[in-house]
């Protein structure tokens, strides 16, 4: 079964308040087995225009990735993020070559 991923591109306007979101999302991410593959860090944009931060989070499967996003705990954390950042996020199914 292919894994599920959150892929987000985010501009943060207030990093101190954004850290409240980071603290609040720890519990739902732990509950749903989320694993950060990319969390900010250095980058070089080679094509197009991107936001300042890129985040990629891996889940055991697509359904779990969607369930985490839809959970009350994550939506409560997201409410902290929304006023202090702008972003694009998608939940995608990984590639399973088998």
Ordered list of secondary-structure elements with their pairings:
Layout: E1 4-12, H1 15-31, E2 35-39, E3 53-59, H2 62-70, H3 72-81, E4 85-93
Antiparallel strand pairs: 1-3, 1-4, 2-3
Question: Can you describe what's shown?
Answer:
It is a single chain. It is built from three helices and four strands, in the order E-H-E-E-H-H-E. A four-stranded antiparallel β-sheet has the order 2-3-1-4, covered by helices on one side. With 98 residues, it is α+β, with helices and mostly antiparallel strands.
Q: Low-confidence stretches at least 5 residues in length (pLDDT < 50)?
A: none
Mean pLDDT: 96
Q: What string gives the helices and strands in order?
A: EHEEHHE
Share of residues in strands: 25-35%
Radius of gyration, Cα only, in angstroms?
Answer: 14 Å
Main beta sheet: 4 strands, antiparallel
Beta strand count: 4
Tell me the overall shape. globular
End-to-end Cα distance? 9 Å
Summarize the structure.
With 98 residues, the protein is α+β, with helices and mostly antiparallel strands.
Keywords:
3 helices; 31% strand; 37% helix; globular; 98 residues; alpha+beta
């Amino acid at each position: 079964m292919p894994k599920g991923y959150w892929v987000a591109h985010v501009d943060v306007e207030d990093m101190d308040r954004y850290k409240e979101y980071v603290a609040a999302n720890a519990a739902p991410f732990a509950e749903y087995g989320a694993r950060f593959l990319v969390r900010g860090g250095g980058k070089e944009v080679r094509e197009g225009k991107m936001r300042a931060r890129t985040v990629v989070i891996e889940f055991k499967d697509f359904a779990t990735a969607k369930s985490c996003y839809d959970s009350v705990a994550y939506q409560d954390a997201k409410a902290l993020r929304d006023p202090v950042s702008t972003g694009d996020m998608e939940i995608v199914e990984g590639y399973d070559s088998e």
